[in-house]
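Question: I have long wanted to understand how a fold can be written as C-alpha coordinates. Here is the record:
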Amino acid sequence: MKDRLVLGIETSCDDTSVAVVAESGRILSSVRINQDKIHEKFGGVYPEFASRAHIFNIIPCVDEALEKSGVTVNDLEAIGVTSGPGLVGSLLVGINTATALGRSWQKPVIGINHLRGHVRSVELEEAEITYPSLMLLISGGHTMLCFMQSRDEFSVLGETRDDSLGEAYDKVGRMIGLSYPAGPMMDKLADSGSPTIKFPRPLLREGYEFSFAGLKSSVRRYLEKNPDYVQEDVAASFAASVIDILSFKLEKAVQEFAPKGIIMVGGVAASPPLRKVVQDLCDDHQVSLFLPPIKWSTDNAAMIALATFDYLNQGIDSPPTPRYRLPVNAF
Protein backbone atom coordinates (compact mmCIF):
# COMPACT_ATOMS: atom_id res chain seq x y z
CA MET A 1 0.00 0.00 0.00
CA LYS A 2 1.35 3.39 -1.00
CA ASP A 3 2.25 5.81 1.82
CA ARG A 4 0.07 8.84 2.35
CA LEU A 5 2.29 11.94 2.19
CA VAL A 6 1.91 15.51 3.42
CA LEU A 7 4.03 18.63 2.93
CA GLY A 8 4.42 20.54 6.20
CA ILE A 9 5.33 24.22 6.57
CA GLU A 10 6.39 25.79 9.88
CA THR A 11 7.07 29.53 10.33
CA SER A 12 5.57 30.28 13.75
CA CYS A 13 8.61 32.11 15.11
CA ASP A 14 12.18 32.35 13.83
CA ASP A 15 12.77 29.04 12.04
CA THR A 16 11.74 28.51 8.43
CA SER A 17 11.07 24.81 7.92
CA VAL A 18 9.49 22.58 5.27
CA ALA A 19 9.20 18.78 5.32
CA VAL A 20 7.62 15.85 3.53
CA VAL A 21 6.39 13.16 5.93
CA ALA A 22 4.46 9.89 5.66
CA GLU A 23 1.55 8.99 7.94
CA SER A 24 3.73 6.41 9.71
CA GLY A 25 6.10 9.17 10.83
CA ARG A 26 8.70 8.33 8.21
CA ILE A 27 10.50 11.52 7.20
CA LEU A 28 11.27 11.78 3.52
CA SER A 29 12.84 15.21 3.84
CA SER A 30 13.17 18.05 6.33
CA VAL A 31 14.73 21.45 5.66
CA ARG A 32 15.19 24.13 8.31
CA ILE A 33 16.86 27.53 8.28
CA ASN A 34 17.25 29.27 11.65
CA GLN A 35 17.72 32.97 12.24
CA ASP A 36 19.88 32.93 15.37
CA LYS A 37 22.49 35.26 13.89
CA ILE A 38 19.80 37.81 12.99
CA HIS A 39 18.30 37.98 16.48
CA GLU A 40 21.40 37.42 18.58
CA LYS A 41 22.18 41.11 19.06
CA PHE A 42 18.63 41.76 20.30
CA GLY A 43 18.73 39.01 22.94
CA GLY A 44 15.53 37.54 21.50
CA VAL A 45 13.38 37.34 18.39
CA TYR A 46 12.79 40.65 16.58
CA PRO A 47 9.38 39.96 14.95
CA GLU A 48 9.70 42.16 11.86
CA PHE A 49 13.14 40.81 10.99
CA ALA A 50 11.84 37.29 11.51
CA SER A 51 9.06 37.87 8.96
CA ARG A 52 11.49 39.30 6.42
CA ALA A 53 13.81 36.32 6.76
CA HIS A 54 10.91 33.91 6.30
CA ILE A 55 9.97 35.65 3.05
CA PHE A 56 13.52 35.21 1.80
CA ASN A 57 13.83 31.56 2.91
CA ILE A 58 10.43 29.95 2.39
CA ILE A 59 10.43 29.11 -1.34
CA PRO A 60 14.02 27.76 -1.35
CA CYS A 61 12.99 25.54 1.60
CA VAL A 62 9.96 24.23 -0.31
CA ASP A 63 12.04 23.51 -3.39
CA GLU A 64 14.76 21.74 -1.40
CA ALA A 65 12.29 19.66 0.63
CA LEU A 66 10.57 18.40 -2.51
CA GLU A 67 13.87 17.65 -4.22
CA LYS A 68 15.27 15.75 -1.23
CA SER A 69 12.06 13.77 -0.73
CA GLY A 70 12.23 12.25 -4.20
CA VAL A 71 8.47 12.68 -4.69
CA THR A 72 6.40 14.96 -6.88
CA VAL A 73 3.57 17.31 -6.05
CA ASN A 74 1.14 14.68 -7.36
CA ASP A 75 2.24 12.31 -4.56
CA LEU A 76 1.12 14.75 -1.84
CA GLU A 77 -2.28 14.42 -0.22
CA ALA A 78 -2.33 17.85 1.43
CA ILE A 79 -0.33 20.78 2.75
CA GLY A 80 -0.25 21.39 6.50
CA VAL A 81 0.87 24.80 7.74
CA THR A 82 1.21 26.21 11.24
CA SER A 83 -1.63 28.68 11.88
CA GLY A 84 -0.79 29.44 15.51
CA PRO A 85 0.12 30.10 18.19
CA GLY A 86 2.97 32.24 17.00
CA LEU A 87 4.10 35.63 15.71
CA VAL A 88 1.41 36.83 13.33
CA GLY A 89 3.84 38.24 10.75
CA SER A 90 5.83 35.01 10.68
CA LEU A 91 2.69 32.88 10.50
CA LEU A 92 1.39 34.92 7.56
CA VAL A 93 4.45 34.10 5.46
CA GLY A 94 3.91 30.37 5.88
CA ILE A 95 0.13 30.57 5.48
CA ASN A 96 0.25 32.74 2.36
CA THR A 97 2.87 30.48 0.80
CA ALA A 98 0.88 27.33 1.63
CA THR A 99 -2.33 28.87 0.28
CA ALA A 100 -0.67 29.86 -2.99
CA LEU A 101 0.91 26.43 -3.39
CA GLY A 102 -2.39 24.72 -2.60
CA ARG A 103 -4.19 26.65 -5.33
CA SER A 104 -1.41 26.04 -7.81
CA TRP A 105 -1.10 22.32 -7.01
CA GLN A 106 -4.83 21.82 -6.35
CA LYS A 107 -4.17 20.39 -2.89
CA PRO A 108 -6.10 21.07 0.34
CA VAL A 109 -4.36 23.39 2.81
CA ILE A 110 -4.94 22.76 6.51
CA GLY A 111 -4.08 25.13 9.35
CA ILE A 112 -2.32 23.20 12.13
CA ASN A 113 -2.06 24.07 15.82
CA HIS A 114 1.63 24.35 16.62
CA LEU A 115 1.08 22.63 19.97
CA ARG A 116 -0.47 19.60 18.27
CA GLY A 117 2.68 19.45 16.19
CA HIS A 118 4.85 19.26 19.31
CA VAL A 119 2.74 16.40 20.69
CA ARG A 120 3.22 14.49 17.43
CA SER A 121 6.97 15.17 17.34
CA VAL A 122 7.48 12.13 19.57
CA GLU A 123 6.13 9.85 16.83
CA LEU A 124 8.44 11.07 14.10
CA GLU A 125 10.74 8.35 12.79
CA GLU A 126 7.90 5.83 13.27
CA ALA A 127 7.86 5.74 17.09
CA GLU A 128 4.67 5.16 19.11
CA ILE A 129 3.19 6.55 22.32
CA THR A 130 1.35 4.39 24.86
CA TYR A 131 -1.77 5.95 26.37
CA PRO A 132 -2.93 7.17 28.79
CA SER A 133 0.05 9.47 29.36
CA LEU A 134 0.91 12.75 30.98
CA MET A 135 2.17 15.35 28.51
CA LEU A 136 4.55 18.12 29.56
CA LEU A 137 5.04 20.76 26.86
CA ILE A 138 7.93 23.13 27.61
CA SER A 139 9.08 25.51 24.90
CA GLY A 140 9.99 29.11 24.19
CA GLY A 141 6.33 30.13 24.03
CA HIS A 142 4.46 27.56 26.10
CA THR A 143 4.48 25.61 29.34
CA MET A 144 1.61 23.24 30.11
CA LEU A 145 0.84 19.87 31.66
CA CYS A 146 -1.94 17.69 30.25
CA PHE A 147 -3.42 14.25 30.85
CA MET A 148 -3.97 12.47 27.55
CA GLN A 149 -6.35 9.50 27.48
CA SER A 150 -5.52 9.07 23.81
CA ARG A 151 -4.01 11.08 21.00
CA ASP A 152 -7.30 12.98 20.62
CA GLU A 153 -8.71 12.96 24.17
CA PHE A 154 -6.99 15.13 26.74
CA SER A 155 -7.50 17.54 29.59
CA VAL A 156 -5.27 20.48 30.47
CA LEU A 157 -4.15 20.19 34.10
CA GLY A 158 -2.25 23.48 34.22
CA GLU A 159 -0.28 26.01 32.24
CA THR A 160 1.98 28.97 32.96
CA ARG A 161 0.41 32.07 34.42
CA ASP A 162 3.12 34.31 32.98
CA ASP A 163 6.45 33.45 31.29
CA SER A 164 7.06 30.19 29.50
CA LEU A 165 9.98 28.10 30.73
CA GLY A 166 11.93 28.65 27.51
CA GLU A 167 11.48 32.41 27.81
CA ALA A 168 12.72 32.31 31.41
CA TYR A 169 15.81 30.34 30.34
CA ASP A 170 16.64 32.85 27.61
CA LYS A 171 16.08 35.92 29.79
CA VAL A 172 18.11 34.59 32.70
CA GLY A 173 20.83 33.65 30.23
CA ARG A 174 20.81 37.18 28.88
CA MET A 175 21.10 38.57 32.44
CA ILE A 176 24.36 36.67 32.97
CA GLY A 177 25.78 37.69 29.61
CA LEU A 178 24.89 34.79 27.32
CA SER A 179 23.87 35.23 23.71
CA TYR A 180 20.54 34.18 22.22
CA PRO A 181 19.39 31.43 22.33
CA ALA A 182 20.72 30.90 25.84
CA GLY A 183 19.14 27.56 26.80
CA PRO A 184 21.89 25.17 25.61
CA MET A 185 24.65 27.31 27.14
CA MET A 186 22.70 27.55 30.42
CA ASP A 187 22.72 23.75 30.60
CA LYS A 188 26.48 23.62 30.00
CA LEU A 189 27.17 26.22 32.68
CA ALA A 190 24.82 24.51 35.14
CA ASP A 191 26.66 21.23 34.66
CA SER A 192 29.86 22.73 36.05
CA GLY A 193 28.24 25.00 38.67
CA SER A 194 27.04 24.55 42.23
CA PRO A 195 23.30 25.05 43.02
CA THR A 196 24.01 26.94 46.23
CA ILE A 197 21.86 30.04 45.60
CA LYS A 198 18.40 29.73 47.16
CA PHE A 199 16.11 30.83 44.34
CA PRO A 200 12.34 30.35 44.91
CA ARG A 201 10.13 27.55 43.58
CA PRO A 202 6.99 29.49 42.54
CA LEU A 203 3.63 27.67 42.81
CA LEU A 204 5.46 24.50 43.81
CA ARG A 205 2.55 23.04 45.80
CA GLU A 206 -0.30 24.93 44.17
CA GLY A 207 -1.89 22.46 41.77
CA TYR A 208 -0.50 22.01 38.28
CA GLU A 209 -0.08 25.61 37.19
CA PHE A 210 3.32 27.19 36.62
CA SER A 211 4.87 30.61 37.12
CA PHE A 212 8.41 31.60 36.18
CA ALA A 213 8.25 35.43 36.26
CA GLY A 214 9.00 35.53 39.99
CA LEU A 215 11.93 33.15 39.61
CA LYS A 216 13.34 35.32 36.84
CA SER A 217 12.93 38.45 39.01
CA SER A 218 14.65 36.72 41.91
CA VAL A 219 17.66 36.00 39.70
CA ARG A 220 17.78 39.64 38.64
CA ARG A 221 17.72 40.86 42.25
CA TYR A 222 20.49 38.44 43.18
CA LEU A 223 22.69 39.67 40.34
CA GLU A 224 22.13 43.30 41.33
CA LYS A 225 23.18 42.57 44.90
CA ASN A 226 26.08 40.31 43.95
CA PRO A 227 28.01 41.86 41.04
CA ASP A 228 30.79 39.33 41.53
CA TYR A 229 28.41 36.41 40.90
CA VAL A 230 29.65 33.17 39.37
CA GLN A 231 27.87 32.41 36.08
CA GLU A 232 28.01 28.67 36.58
CA ASP A 233 26.47 28.84 40.06
CA VAL A 234 23.63 31.11 38.92
CA ALA A 235 22.85 28.76 36.05
CA ALA A 236 23.00 25.68 38.29
CA SER A 237 20.80 27.27 40.95
CA PHE A 238 18.24 28.43 38.38
CA ALA A 239 18.19 24.95 36.84
CA ALA A 240 17.76 23.35 40.26
CA SER A 241 14.69 25.49 40.91
CA VAL A 242 13.18 24.59 37.54
CA ILE A 243 13.88 20.90 37.98
CA ASP A 244 12.32 20.89 41.46
CA ILE A 245 9.15 22.54 40.12
CA LEU A 246 8.75 20.23 37.15
CA SER A 247 9.61 17.01 38.96
CA PHE A 248 7.32 17.81 41.92
CA LYS A 249 4.32 18.48 39.70
CA LEU A 250 5.02 15.50 37.46
CA GLU A 251 5.35 13.15 40.43
CA LYS A 252 2.11 14.47 41.91
CA ALA A 253 0.34 13.93 38.57
CA VAL A 254 1.74 10.40 38.23
CA GLN A 255 0.37 9.51 41.64
CA GLU A 256 -3.03 11.06 40.89
CA PHE A 257 -3.60 9.83 37.33
CA ALA A 258 -1.54 6.60 37.17
CA PRO A 259 -0.44 7.07 33.53
CA LYS A 260 1.40 4.49 31.47
CA GLY A 261 3.88 7.08 30.32
CA ILE A 262 5.12 10.66 30.37
CA ILE A 263 5.47 12.63 27.13
CA MET A 264 7.90 15.58 27.25
CA VAL A 265 8.01 17.82 24.18
CA GLY A 266 9.03 21.32 23.10
CA GLY A 267 12.39 22.98 22.67
CA VAL A 268 13.25 22.86 26.38
CA ALA A 269 12.65 19.08 26.29
CA ALA A 270 16.05 18.87 24.56
CA SER A 271 17.71 19.83 27.86
CA PRO A 272 19.90 16.89 29.01
CA PRO A 273 19.47 17.52 32.77
CA LEU A 274 15.70 17.74 32.40
CA ARG A 275 15.65 14.54 30.36
CA LYS A 276 17.66 12.75 33.04
CA VAL A 277 15.44 13.90 35.90
CA VAL A 278 12.24 12.89 34.11
CA GLN A 279 13.78 9.57 33.09
CA ASP A 280 14.67 8.89 36.74
CA LEU A 281 11.11 9.74 37.78
CA CYS A 282 9.73 7.36 35.16
CA ASP A 283 12.07 4.61 36.32
CA ASP A 284 10.99 5.11 39.93
CA HIS A 285 7.30 4.79 39.02
CA GLN A 286 7.77 2.18 36.27
CA VAL A 287 6.21 4.26 33.52
CA SER A 288 7.55 4.85 30.03
CA LEU A 289 9.17 8.10 28.92
CA PHE A 290 8.33 9.35 25.44
CA LEU A 291 10.69 11.96 24.04
CA PRO A 292 11.25 13.26 20.53
CA PRO A 293 14.81 12.88 19.25
CA ILE A 294 16.64 16.09 20.19
CA LYS A 295 16.69 17.31 16.58
CA TRP A 296 12.86 17.17 16.50
CA SER A 297 12.35 18.89 19.88
CA THR A 298 12.66 22.41 18.52
CA ASP A 299 10.22 23.88 15.98
CA ASN A 300 10.18 21.93 12.73
CA ALA A 301 7.91 21.25 9.78
CA ALA A 302 8.09 17.46 10.11
CA MET A 303 5.96 17.56 13.26
CA ILE A 304 3.46 19.87 11.52
CA ALA A 305 3.23 17.49 8.58
CA LEU A 306 2.60 14.50 10.86
CA ALA A 307 -0.04 16.43 12.83
CA THR A 308 -1.83 17.14 9.55
CA PHE A 309 -2.88 13.49 9.37
CA ASP A 310 -4.80 13.93 12.63
CA TYR A 311 -6.91 16.62 10.98
CA LEU A 312 -7.32 14.63 7.75
CA ASN A 313 -8.34 11.43 9.55
CA GLN A 314 -10.93 13.20 11.70
CA GLY A 315 -12.28 15.24 8.81
CA ILE A 316 -11.45 18.49 10.57
CA ASP A 317 -11.71 21.52 8.29
CA SER A 318 -9.17 23.93 9.74
CA PRO A 319 -8.70 27.03 7.57
CA PRO A 320 -5.14 28.42 7.68
CA THR A 321 -5.84 31.63 9.61
CA PRO A 322 -3.02 33.22 11.63
CA ARG A 323 -3.60 33.19 15.38
CA TYR A 324 -1.26 34.73 17.95
CA ARG A 325 -2.93 32.58 20.61
CA LEU A 326 -5.21 29.57 20.52
CA PRO A 327 -7.33 28.09 23.33
CA VAL A 328 -5.28 25.58 25.29
CA ASN A 329 -7.96 22.94 24.67
CA ALA A 330 -7.80 23.38 20.89
CA PHE A 331 -4.93 21.10 20.01
